[in-house]
Amino acid sequence: MTSVGTYTTEDGIGIVEINSPPVNALGVNVRRALNEGFSKFAQDDSVKAIVLICGGRTFFAGADISEFGKAPEGPGLHEVFDIIENGSKPVVAAIHGTALGGGYELALICHYRIAVPSAKVGLPEVNLGLLPGAGGTQRLPRIVGAEAALDLMTTGRPVPAKKAVELGMVDALAEEGKLREDAIAFARRILAEGRPLLRVRDRDDKVAEARGKPEIFAAFRKANARAFRGFKAPENIIKAIEAAVELPFDKGMERERELFGELVTSTESAAQRYVFFAEREAAKIPDVPKDTPILPVKKVGVIGAGTMGGGITMNFLNAGIPVTLVEARQEALDRGLSVIRRNYENTARKGRMTMEQVEQRMALITPSLKLEDLADVDLVIEAVFESMPIKKEVFGKLDTIVKQGAILATNTSFLDIDEIAASTSRPEWVVGMHFFSPANVMRLLEVVRGAKTRTDVIATAMELGRKIGKVSVLARVCDGFIANRLMKPRGVASQILVLQGPTPQEIDQASYNYGFAMGPFAMSDLVGLDVIGRDSTERTLTGDLVKLGRLGQKQGGGFYDYDENRKATPSPVAAQVIADFAAHKGINSHGSLPEDEIVARLLYPVVNEGAKILEEGIAIRASDIDMAAILGYNWPVYTGGPMFWADTVGLKKIVEGLKAMGHEPAKLLVKLAEEGKTFTRG
Ligand code: 3HC
Ligand code: NAI
Taking the CB of residue 503, how many other CB atoms lie within 10 A of it? Predict the structure, then answer.
């Protein structure tokens, strides 16, 4: 293996340049090269100062995440960092792209930091269930103070260079495109001015401000308790920053190491690291190679300005892509447009957008009542009522109107895309682009390939999803595709379980404690029981509640009673309705169940459905199913999603559990369990 480092000198300045595509992660080869470069210049008397710079698209993007959990190889990060920080020559970190995690920690080891304006720096380890474990928890507070450090490290938010200079995270800005020259000039200036070797570890003033004030940390914990629920990393980050404030540097480093050790071996972090790679893996499709041409999409048409059409439109406006929005009726069009405007104005009111930007985005919409206005768009997304005859009619018309070579997409939730495609003369141009509500917020986009969909149409839809900030997951046609099909058994299971003894609040509490924002019954009450039960023709539990005027939060209460502040309390009336319905179904109540048993009854059937989705080839891989659950249904990310969680529980236990509940386990699930294999663990 050739070295990823080059070491050159320019008139007394040593330049260590690392080039390890794609993102200069601090893997073993990079650590070796750093070791080599800095040792070389330490011994070279002609070198008076050193610039550390990266080739390619970015400064170091952090530790190599794929190395966690494996046996360490080569020099460790701490070893390399010690050489740099404790050398006798000033080191200038020259930053472009993103200096993240271990990458920014490495910049903090250097004596000075210079960055181009487009660069960003930050410590995003929290998103991997980790804390900055290469001194970041001890050094950053010494620059920005404890309170700013708490915020930066528990959100993981990257800071743009200019702001980083204001905060002291970066010392100077370089001219865009001239990083190397400016960093060398900066190093010369340090030498000429005889500036000291500034080690962040030696600073104390910023951390001293918080010393002896535990109330700062107590208040931070309290204010964020809800956001941090279920995650392990934020609490350990807080503890590490407390150590930075209260302990001498070396003791603080020991504490950081201990707290990092707890996280790196936790299931939560393993899950979040898995999700990091799963998100990137989702873009890879075995029979659609990376070099498949992406079709240009410069103008989009959206049909239907209802709940989904409006949100879908906003995604494109946000990306600067003009949208022709077609409705059947003027009033529906006006309503749709005003909802979009209101959403943007709310964002502006919160200061996250200017009114000028609101107008710019609104100006990208061409409202219309005629499908004919879609003749020259590159992509149409249909979001009209969920009805096969209506969709077929719309696609039949589109076929005669829209130019050849345009993509015809449907946002259907459950309908057969091949049947919709068959109503056109160009089924190979038809694809599903299934957004989740609210479509301008939820990050999942299911791209559904029909039997005849062209590979360039698939590649373009996937890439377009990325462009508008979504994670695209590819599915094949079936009832409900991946996410909706996967989660349906949870709803069914909760309706049965509540007849067997556990109360709505016990079931909701178990779901909440597992990590969902809300349990199934609280959710039903929020959505409205009349909406949930509206398609049902037979007698149902929700239907019985509706008959009593219990529509949920909005009217009469539902599974719960509500006071004027919409605070829920258990409902004796609902309890009676449940008991009566159980009697009608001939189901005997066995009383309440332990929480883990409730979770098993709700979620093992989801795992089973996931296994079927996989064995039928609806999803390409188990991790795509996990992404769909996490991003489409807010499945708690620190469990890794249903399939990763199933592996954590153990597939044998899941198979046995399913059998005990009277479910037939999917063939794939049984096979993996028998072979001692897993869905997600390699
Ligand atoms: N380790 C290993 N691989 C990494 C990586 C890392 N830190 N960061 C990115 N990669 C890989 C990706 O998996 C992807 O691989 P693929 O092409 O095979 O799918 C490739 O690099 C390119 O990544 P992206 O597709 O994400 O590229 P973008 O240009 O969209 O984004 C980025 C670049 C902003 C750097 C983004 O990759 C990112 O956020 N990376 C992670 C940053 C991070 O979390 N760093 C902290 C690591 S933990 C740490 O440092 C611990 C320390 O405190 C001890
Ligand atoms: P909606 O009822 O809010 O909006 C549908 C709109 O389409 C209405 O404004 C209606 O006037 C318009 N429309 C009907 N026929 C039309 C035609 N021939 N030409 C032009 N406009 C027409 O419905 P919603 O919820 O937005 O759903 C739309 C589609 O998205 C459905 O297929 C649905 O299954 C799917 N979907 C819905 C989700 C949700 O949570 N609401 C989530 C994901 C997909």
Answer: 18
Which pLDDT score is estimated for 1? 56
Per-residue pLDDT tens over the stretch 361-409 = 999 999 999 999 999 999 999 999 999 999 999 999 999 999 999 999 9
d(CA 628, CA 635): 9
Q: Which of 85, 105, 256, 268 is catalytic?
A: 105
Is 23 close to ligand 1, i.e. is its CB under 6 Å away?
A: yes
Say how many residues make up the chain.
682
| Per-residue pLDDT at 526 exceeds 70 | yes
Atom of ligand 2 nearest to the CA of 435: 43
> Which single residue is written with the structure tokens 């005669």?
400
Please identify, by atom number, the ligand 1 atom nearest to the C-alpha of residue 61.
35
For the record, the structure tokens of 657 come out as 């559990």
Ligand nearest to the CA of 108: 1
Distance 613 CA to ligand 2 centre (A): 26
How confident is the model over 451-463, as a mean pLDDT?
A: 98
557 CA from centroid of ligand 1 (Å): 48
Ligand 2 mean position, distance from CA 385 (Å): 4
Q: Domains (ranges, CATH) in the chain?
A: 5-264 (3.90.226.10), 300-475 (3.40.50.720), 483-617+620-682 (1.10.1040.50)
Q: Let me know if 359 is a catalytic residue.
A: no
**Ligand 2 atom 1, closest CA:** 306
Q: How far is CA 654 from CA 85, 485, 635, 646, 673, in A?
A: 51, 19, 18, 7, 9
Q: Which residues of 91-130 are buried (b: 16+ CB within 10 A; e: fewer)?
A: bbbbbbbbbbbbbbbbbbbbbbbbbbeebbbbbbbbbbbb
3-class secondary structure per residue, 254-323: HHHHHHHHHHHCCHHHHHHHHHHHHHHHCCCECCECCCCCCCCCCCEEEECCCHHHHHHHHHHHHCCCCE
Q: What average pLDDT score do residues 309-328 get? A: 98
Ligand 2 centroid distance, CA of 378 (Å): 21
List pLDDT tens digits, range 483-521.
999 999 999 999 999 999 999 999 999 999 999 999 999
For ligand 1, whether the C-beta of 280 sits within 6 Å is yes
**Pocket residue to mutate for ligand 1, from 18, 57, 60, 65, most atoms within 8 A of Cβ:** 65
In this predicted structure, the answer to whether residue 536 has a pLDDT above a threshold of 90 is no
- What is the predicted pLDDT for the residue at 682? 77
- Percent of the chain surpassing pLDDT 90: 96
Candidate of 314, 368, 411 to mutate for ligand 2, largest count of ligand atoms within 8 Å of Cβ: 411
125 in active site: yes
In the predicted structure, residue 106 carries a pLDDT above the cut 60: yes
Q: How confident is the model at residue 535 (pLDDT cuts 50, 70, 90)?
A: confident
